[in-house]
Amino acid sequence: MAPILSSTSPLDLLREAVGGAPALPALSATAYARTHAAYEAASDQRAQLQGWLARELPPLLADPADPTDPAAPLRVVGVGVGDGSVDAPLAAALAAGGRRVHYTGVEPHLASAVGFAARLSGLGLRSLVPSLVIGNFADHDPGHPVDLLHFVHSLYYVDDVGAALDHALAVLRPGGLLVTATAPVEPLCVLTELLGPWSGHRPWFAHDVRAELDRRGLDVRTEHLVGRLDVRDVLADPQGRGAAVLDFLIGADTSAMPPEVREPLLAQLLSLTDAEHPGSVPHPLDIAVVRVP
Q1: Distance from chain centroid for Cα 86
Q2: pLDDT per position as a tens digit, 218-258
Q3: Of 144, 59, 157, 154, nearest to 116 (Cα)?
Q4: How confident is the model at residue 7, as a pLDDT?
Q5: Domain for residue 36, yes or no?
Q6: Residue 171's CATH number
Q7: 251: domain range?
């Protein structure tokens, strides 16, 4: 990458370059799944999230879901569960000690949904009953009041974040838990927001979700996780071995990105690294937990 000889920041140069560049082509569903896997493999955020969910949520759901029937199963709905890699450790933790758990995954992408079903079934827990809904959450009626409903990295893509949260609150039982895990705009998602090919609204980020929760007068507990994303391959070979991570970060096929955009983008990524974490950038996540009144 050629050096940028300017006192203007890489981000400012990037903003200027993007203004005159055509939008990049959006990722197909298949490309999304492939690049998402590469992106997650380059980050330690998922491991942190898996550990947090499995550690923090079971104690919050320790009481019987139905006091009149202590043997009633715990009912869980995960929205946008992908291949189930986050859900499997949570399901195992909730079902520890033989507790009955009915765990539903809602996922629009068929190949990912199959992975979810395989992961949860593969746990081999007799007390765990997994089920799968291939489709959109807006169309899902669980048929029973839900004890836990979570959106893990899925609220970015809904048409109306307020409507999605209202639907979640409507299906949760009083005392149930609503959990959202959404990235803040800084520092990586400012690039996503700037460069992504958004045909309608831009993705909803953590501040959007929190504003909607606050607007509903809900008591929100928050947790901020900070993972690290390895960007060495992106910086060294953005059109080769680093392309999948860069594509997912932007949400687009970056092979057609012009040099006048790519160079300040890479410079901005480099500026986010530091001596303590060479080759990696902060990869934060905001978690909100709401006890439904």
Answers
A1: 10
A2: 999 999 999 999 999 999 999 999 999 999 999 999 998 99
A3: 154
A4: 56
A5: yes
A6: 3.40.50.150
A7: 10-291
User: Which residue type, as a one-letter code, is found at position 32?
Assistant: Y
- Number of structural domains found in the chain: 1
Instruction: Compute the distance between CA of residue 194 and CA of residue 182 in angstroms, rounded to an integer.
Output: 18
How confident is the model over 184-193, as a mean pLDDT? 92
Alpha-carbon gap, residue 290 to 209, rounded angstroms: 12
> Which pLDDT score is estimated for 4?
46
The tokens for 96 are: 């520890």
Q: How many CA atoms lie within 13 A of 156 on its CB side?
A: 20
Give me 45's structure tokens.
């955020």
Residue with tokens 């932007």: 250
Q: Encode pLDDT of 144-178 as tens digits.
A: 999 999 999 999 989 999 999 999 999 999 999 99
Amino acid at site 216: R
**Which one, of 49, 24, 55, 26, lies nearest residue 180 by Cα?**
49
Q: How many CB atoms lie within 10 A of CB 186?
A: 12
Do the beta carbons of residue 284 and residue 224 sit within 8 Å? yes
Within-domain flag for 2: no
Is residue 81 included in any domain, yes or no?
yes
Residues 6+ apart with CB under 8 A from 44: 227, 228, 283
Q: What mean pLDDT value characterizes the chain?
A: 93
